[in-house]
Amino acid sequence: MNLDKELQKSIDSLRWKIDTFFVVGIVLAVAALGIYISHLIFPSEINEFFDDEGTDIVNGFTVLLASLSGVLFVYIAFLGQQWQMIYQQQELRENMKEMQELTAQNKIQGNALNEQINKMDRDFVHQNFFRILEQHFNIRDRVKFSYSLEPGTFSKRNTEGRGEDGFEAYFRKVVLWVDDESGWGKKMTEFDKQSFFVENGYPWISKRDDIKNIGNPKNWNFYDIVFANDLTYDEIKFLIRVVITESGFGPYLRSCYYLFSYMYHNSLDEYLDAVEAGMNRFERSFLFYQIATRFEVDNKLILKIWLMEHRFLANIEPKHLLSPGHKGLLYPEGIGPEYKKIHNPHP
Predict the structure, then answer these.
(1) What is the extent of the structural domain holding 307?
(2) pTM (two decimals)
(3) Domain match, 97 and 176 both
(4) Where are the transmembrane segments (predicted)?
C-alpha cells in the first residue's frame, strides 16, 4: 500500500524506533541470560568476587536487565500498534477518496440523468403541442358559418361556409349586418335591449345617426369613410362580437384559448410562426379581431399581452382587415419588439 508523504515519515520514524529498541531489548535479554548462566557455572568465583553476596547481586541485576528488556518489548508492541493504525489511517483516506470520486461520479450521472429526464419532459411537451395543434387545425376545418347573399336580406337566403369559407362568411355577414335594417340598423326597444343583454351577456350598442352605410359588399370590408364617422373601440368590439354564433365559432375560440395557454405556460413562443403559417387570410383576420376585442372579455388578457409581446399576426396586411386603421387595435404605431411592456391600446 502506498502511503501519503506525512504518513510515510511516521512509518519511517516508527521503523527506526522499533529496530533500535528491538536490538537494545535483545542485548539486555542476552546480557541477563548470560549473567544468570555465568552464575550457575561459576558460583564460587562470583560469590568470592562480591564477598559472598554474589548470588543476590547477580539475581537482582539479572531481574533488572530482564525487566528493562521486557519493558522495551512492550513498548515495541505499542509501536507496532501505531504502525498498524497508520496503515488503517491510510486505508481510511483511500476509502474516503474513493467515496468522493464515487460521489462526484454519482453527481455527474445524476446531472446527466436529470438532463435526460428534462429533455424527455421537454420532448413530451413539444410532441403534445403538435398533437394539440393538429387537433386545433381539425377544429378549424370544421368551422361552419352562414351568411346572407346580399344586403337587405340579412335573415333570408343564407349560404353556408365551412373552414376558411366559414371565416370569409363571417366577414361577409359583418359587412352586411352593419347596414342591414334587421342587423345594426334594427330599432331596439328598451325591452329588446334588456333581452339582448340577458341572452348575450353584454349590452346592445345602438347605431348612431351620424353613421351611414359603412359596409362595402364589393370588397367585403368597410368604406374608408368609417374614419370620418369615428367608430369607437366599443362599437368595433360590439360589431365583432355580435355576429359570432356559439355553434359556429365557439369550439374554435375555446381551442385557440387552450392552444395559446399551453404555449404560454410551456414557453413555446418559437412555434407562434408555425401556428400563423397554418392559417389562411380570413382566419388570420378573424383571429386578429378576436385577440383585439374578445380575449380580455373572456379573461384571457395575459394571453393577449403575451401574443402582442411576440408580435403574433403583426405582419397581417391592413387591406385584409375591415379597415386598414384597425391594425392599431393591436399594434399602434410605436409598438414593436423593442418595447418590453405593451399596454392595452383601448383601456
Answers:
(1) 144-329
(2) 0.63
(3) no
(4) 21-42, 57-78
Q: Which DSSP category does 328 fall into? A: G
Residues 6+ apart with CB under 8 A from 168: 161, 220, 282
Element (H, E) at 18: helix 5-41
The grid coordinates listed for 290 are 378576436
Q: Is 145 exposed, middle or buried, given 0-12, 13-18 or 19+ CB atoms closer than 10 A?
A: buried
> Of 89-103, 122-136, 210-224, which gets the smallest average pLDDT?
210-224
Q: How many domains does the chain have?
A: 2
pLDDT in tens, 300-316: 999 999 999 999 999 99
On whether both 210 and 269 belong to a single domain, the answer is yes
Residue 341 resides in a domain: no
Spatial CA neighbour of 263 closest among 135, 119, 130, 138: 130
Q: Are residues 202 and 249 in the same domain?
A: yes
Question: Residue 161 pairs with which residues in a beta bridge?
Answer: 145
CA atoms within 13 A on the CB side of 308: 28
| pLDDT tens for each residue of 183-199 | 888 888 999 999 989 98
Quickly state the pLDDT bin for 43 (edges 50, 70, 90). low
Q: Are residues 58 and 188 in the same domain?
A: no
111/167 same-domain check: no
Whether residues 209 and 69 share a domain: the answer is no
Q: Within this chain, do residues 116 and 177 fall inside the same structural domain, yes or no?
A: no
- Decide if 314 contacts 331 (C-beta within 8 A): yes
